[in-house]
Every structure is written in structure tokens, then in C-alpha cells.
Specification:
Elements (H helix, E strand, L loop, with lengths): L1 E3 L5 E4 L8 E6 L5 E5 L5 H6 L9 E5 L5 E5 L16 E6 L5 E5 L14 E5 L5 E5 L12 E6 L5 E5 L4 E5 L5 E5 L7 E4 L5 E5 L15 E5 L6 E6 L7 H4 L5 E4 L4 E5 L7 E5 L1
Antiparallel strand pairs: 1-2, 3-4, 4-5, 5-6, 7-8, 8-9, 9-10, 11-12, 12-13, 13-14, 15-16, 16-17, 17-18, 19-20, 20-21
């Protein structure tokens, strides 16, 4: 995990050797850093890297200094979509009351198997499993790869339901209360200090299945009325967005209103722009 200043200089790093695939993260009100380790090493990888055993399928809570404080899930063990054991988790979000929510199941968009893990798992602040909801599918409340999580200004959980090309909103009890498809195929979702929602689309027009006809990029708008006010094109000069795919997969906004897009193809550039 690498911490950067506003000019891109590395000021701190931690977690080396503890994580297989750092896929999502959240920083809570105390400055603790929650990191999702999305998958375990496969047999071929374990032959090359035996120290990778026992890692993955977990969420790690680090102190601001990088000390491991808590782990959710069982490292290296894939769950079945019930209980506390996780299976290719995508993202984590700490709720207003300190409860921890995990978007569990990365493979939902790549299969037609209804037994595929696709759920939201809720834990207490000290790591005790409370409840989970959701299953693979496209109906309200169902999910296909809950790729990113964020809480809106009203305290509702917003899920980037990427395999279904929609944002889904859940209340505190896990009831689906609303959905938005006008933000395209969401890989990440972030709320700025002004309450606007920023949605990163990394996969549209990637192939004939993944939301064809849409352009990847970052859409900015409001979940109060569903309006999309701005669009930051995800294309990179000199590259074909339709063949290169993921641009950008992550999005964040700083206190000054600068928008950061994490690009995972075409050389892995990170780009910054003002709204």
C-alpha cells in the first residue's frame, strides 16, 4: 500500500508481503486503512512463491502506520457465500456506525452459474460476522460482482453492481431501494465533499458483452435525481479504448475537487484532472 502526497511523491508504504491482490480499500474516521486481498495464489503461483500460502480471500485492517489490527475472512480459504469466510472479495466500506461491509464475489460477471458468490457481508467494528444479503442474479437486490462500495450522504450503501451495469442502493437492513443505470458499467464509486457521485467505468465497449455502445470514463452526477452532469473520457491518447479495455477502474476526489482516475491498462497510468 503506497501513500502519495498531492504531487505524487511517495510519503509512506506498508503491507509488503502480506497481500496477494490488493483490490479495494477504505480509510475510516480514525485513519485506519482497510484493504481487500481479493484472491489466493493458484497452484502454479504457490510453486514459485510458497510464502503466498495462507493469503487472499480476506480484508486486512491496518493502522495509519501500517500495523495489522484485524483480519476478516480466513486467509487463503475461499468461502461458499455464507458466514464470515469470504470468496474473492472486491471492496470494503466502513459505515457511519463503524460496521464494516464487504462486497463479496468477483466472478459473478463471468459466469451463468447461479451458485456463484455475489453478496454483501456485514461485520461489526471488531470483526464479528453479523449478516449477509444478496445472491447471483439481475433482479433488485441481486448482484453480479459487487465491485465497489460507498456510503452516500444519507448513509445508504451504494454498490457498483458491475455485472449488471448499474448502481444499486441498499438501506441499513439490506433492502434494495433504488438503482441507477445511467452511470454506465461501474467499477468504482466515490462521493466528493459536495455530495456529488463519481463513477468510474473501466469496461464498457470492452467486448460485445460488457455494455457495448457506452464509452469508458468517469461520470459525475447526483443520486438525488439521477442526473449525470460531467463526463471525463477514459480514452488514452494513442490507444484504442475498445481493445485496451480498463480505463479507469478506480476514482477518488480530494478536498480541493481534483479527480483521480486509476488506469489499469495502457501502461497503468494514473491521471488527475480538475472537474
Amino acid at each position: 500500500i503506497v501513500k502519495l502526497d498531492p504531487d505524487g511523491n511517495v510519503v509512506q508504504s506498508f503491507g509488503a508481503g502480506l497481500i496477494i491482490w490488493p483490490h479495494g480499500m477504505d480509510v475510516d474516521r480514525e485513519g485506519n486503512v482497510w484493504v481487500v486481498d481479493a484472491r489466493a495464489a493458484n497452484a502454479r503461483e504457490l510453486q514459485r512463491f510458497p510464502n503466498a500460502a495462507g493469503k487472499g480471500h480476506s480484508v486486512i485492517k491496518f493502522s495509519p502506520e501500517g500495523e495489522v489490527l484485524l483480519t476478516l475472512g480466513e486467509g487463503g480459504v475461499a468461502g461458499d457465500g455464507t458466514g464470515a469466510t469470504l470468496n474473492t472479495p472486491n471492496d470494503v466500506a466502513v459505515g457511519p456506525d463503524g460496521s464494516v461491509y464487504v462486497g463479496d464475489g468477483h466472478e459473478g460477471q463471468n459466469t451463468d452459474d447461479p451458485n456463484t458468490v455475489a453478496r454483501i457481508a456485514k461485520f461489526s467494528a471488531d470483526g464479528e460476522f453479523i449478516v449477509s444479503w444478496g445472491q447471483w442474479g439481475s433482479e433488485p437486490g441481486e448482484l453480479k460482482t459487487p465491485h465497489a462500495l460507498a456510503f452516500d450522504p444519507l448513509g445508504r450503501l451504494v454498490v457498483a453492481d458491475r455485472g449488471n451495469n448499474r448502481l444499486q442502493i441498499f438501506d441499513e437492513e439490506g433492502n434494495a431501494v433504488e438503482e441507477f443505470k445511467q452511470f454506465s458499467r461501474p467499477s468504482d464509486v466515490h462521493f466528493g465533499p459536495d455530495g456529488m457521485v463519481y463513477v468510474a467505468d473501466s469496461e464498457s465497449a470492452f467486448d460485445e458483452v460488457r455494455n457495448p455502445g457506452w464509452t469508458p470514463g468517469i461520470r459525475v452526477g447526483s443520486l438525488e435525481d439521477g442526473s449525470v452532469s460531467y463526463f471525463i473520457d477514459g480514452a488514452i491518447e494513442g490507444h484504442d479504448r475498445y481493445s485496451d479495455g480498463s480505463n479507469p477502474e478506480g476514482v477518488a476526489v480530494d478536498a480541493a475537487g481534483n479527480v483521480y482516475g486509476a488506469v489499469v491498462s495502457s501502461g497503468g497510468e494514473m491521471v488527475r484532472s480538475s472537474r
